[in-house]
């Protein structure tokens, strides 16, 4: 089988190579990968910026849609021919996260999905929604589940702010609209904001032309602020904390703007704001999201597809930040 393996950090060191087909052991499943969705985490992992101590060689990437080809002894959750999706955090089935679970993740430290075939434990698998293509279904494990987890508790009539138009943000927009929430979207691109309105955003703000966008959000909500912010930027949280209502929640997902920055603790304290870290989610949450996606026939936004052999080209495209939605490799 073909795999893309990283033997030294750097996109130029991601090489296509042949390996023997793996064999499933007890409780394991052999998958034939049909599509691989790219995340910003994958790019950082390849560059050595996500975890410089990651052991190499590594097969990168965390998301895939695949078909079950063979079953190990004792497997009953899936059958040969099923179209399935592996969970990013392999052993987190339900409940609160535990430290020992959160390091058991695809695409680092475990070998990931950038392979024609892979073996995983049957308990990490969920069925792919039937109405989605392989490329669409492959986008769900990280971006989709992260957005679903970040929206926990959001209900009809709430207002949600999503930052940017990357994979998590667009899923959050679509899933929040699905829940009956009003969505405000920010971006530096007016063209992308127009596309976000087409997906259901009720209001949009260009944070370049409106640098004090937190104040603008308050105006859009008649001074109240938003119930939930999908925070993918990090760094200086001043505008986000200004935009969220008293008693609201900042769901911290990304640190594109840096892992540290100025935080007004007084505003968090005096406004009773909850800051909650989101690290994707568990399998049962994944399954709940898929039921909602199926019921509402929601379709993820796929920006562009590439051939599996062109993984380096696709990751380079992702690094340019011009995409609207997900970038996917198809086999």
Characterise the protein shown here.
The chain is of the alpha/beta class. The protein has 2 domains: 2-139 and 300-330, Quinone Oxidoreductase, Chain A, domain 1 (Alpha-Beta Complex), CATH 3.90.180.10; 145-277, 3-Layer(aba) Sandwich (Rossmann fold), CATH 3.40.50.720. It is built from 11 helices and 15 strands. It has helices at 40-47, 99-102, 134-137, 140-150, 167-178, 190-198, 213-220, 238-243, 265-270, 283-296, 311-319, and strands at residues 2-6, 14-18, 28-38, 63-71, 83-86, 117-121, 125-127, 159-163, 182-187, 203-206, 226-231, 244-252, 274-277, 302-307, 326-330. The strands form 3 sheets. Strands 3, 4, 5, 6, 7, 14 and 15 form a 7-stranded mixed beta sheet that branches. Strand 12, helix 9 (265-270) and strand 13 (274-277) form a beta-alpha-beta unit. Helix 4 packs across helix 5. The chain is globular and about 60 Å long. The protein starts with a strand and ends with a strand. The mean pLDDT is 95.
- Say what the CATH topology of the largest domain is: Quinone Oxidoreductase, Chain A, domain 1
Unreliable parts:
none
Report the portion of residues in β strands.
25-35%
Task: Give the number of domains.
Answer: 2
Helix content: 25-40%
**Rg from alpha-carbon coordinates:** 20 Å
What oligomeric state do the depicted chains represent?
Answer: single chain
What is the correct CATH architecture of the largest domain?
A: Alpha-Beta Complex
């Amino acid at each position: 089988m073909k795999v893309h393996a990283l033997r030294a950090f750097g996109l130029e060191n991601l090489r296509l190579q042949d390996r023997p087909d793996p064999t499933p052991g007890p409780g394991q499943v052999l998958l034939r990968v049909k599509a691989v969705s790219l995340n910003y985490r994958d790019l950082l992992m390849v560059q050595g910026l996500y975890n410089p101590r990651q052991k190499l060689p590594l097969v990168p990437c965390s998301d895939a849609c695949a078909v079950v080809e063979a079953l190990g002894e004792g497997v009953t959750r899936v059958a040969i021919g099923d179209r399935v999706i592996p969970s990013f955090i392999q052993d987190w089935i339900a409940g609160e996260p535990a430290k020992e679970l959160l390091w058991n993740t695809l695409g680092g430290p475990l070998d990931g999905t950038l392979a024609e075939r892979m073996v995983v434990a049957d308990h990490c698998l969920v069925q792919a929604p039937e109405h989605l293509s392989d490329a669409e279904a492959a986008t769900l494990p990280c971006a989709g589940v992260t957005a679903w987890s970040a929206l926990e508790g959001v209900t009809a009539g709430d207002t949600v702010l999503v930052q940017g138009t990357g994979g998590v943000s667009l899923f959050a927009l679509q899933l929040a609209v699905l829940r009956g929430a009003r969505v405000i979207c920010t971006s530096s691109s007016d063209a992308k904001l127009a596309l976000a309105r087409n997906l259901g955003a009720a209001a949009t703000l260009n944070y370049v032309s409106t640098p004090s966008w937190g104040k603008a959000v308050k105006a859009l909500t008649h001074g109240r602020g938003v119930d939930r912010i999908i925070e993918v930027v990090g760094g200086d949280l001043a505008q986000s904390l200004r935009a969220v209502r008293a008693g609201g929640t900042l769901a911290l997902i990304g640190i594109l703007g840096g892992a540290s920055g100025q935080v007004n603790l007084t505003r968090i304290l005096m406004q009773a704001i909850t800051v909650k870290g989101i690290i994707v989610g568990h399998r049962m949450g994944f399954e709940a999201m898929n039921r909602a996606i199926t019921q509402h026939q929601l379709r993820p936004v796929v920006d562009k597809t590439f051939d599996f052999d062109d993984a380096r080209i696709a990751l380079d495209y992702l690094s340019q930040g011009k995409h609207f939605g997900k970038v996917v490799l198809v086999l």
